[in-house]
Amino acid sequence: MNDKLLQILADTLGVDVGTLNEETSMENTAAWDSVAHLNLVLSLEQSFGQRFSPDEFMQMQSVAAIRRALAAHGAP
User: Fold this and answer.
1) Could you tell me if 63 and 21 are in contact, meaning their C-beta atoms sit under 8 angstroms apart?
2) Which of 5, 9, 11, 46 has the fewest CB atoms within 10 Å, counting from its CB?
3) Rounded to whole angstroms, how far apart are CA atoms 7 and 18?
């Protein structure tokens, strides 16, 4: 999940995958705006075969939070 998650983030945000880590978030990544966030969550849903609730969508604002949401859904 780690490599796949980071690659999806990098592709969606248009950043180098090497710049991403657990602390990467909407607060510290200029490219991660509201439109990018919507695209990111849609990409995650498609790639991992999951559906996220509106509450989860709003909480998934960092790599760590996304990882927790995916784990809660049993994503591999």
Assistant:
1) yes
2) 46
3) 10
pLDDT tens digit sequence for 5-29:
999 999 999 999 999 999 999 999 9
Tens digit of pLDDT for each residue in 25-75? 999 999 999 999 999 999 999 999 999 999 999 999 999 999 999 999 987
Residue with token string 């990018």? 36
**Rama region for 74: left / alpha / beta (φ>0; ψ in -120 to 50; rest):** left
What CATH number is associated with residue 16? Answer: 1.10.1200.10
Tally the domains of the chain.
1
| Phi and psi torsions of 53, nearest 5° | -75, 165
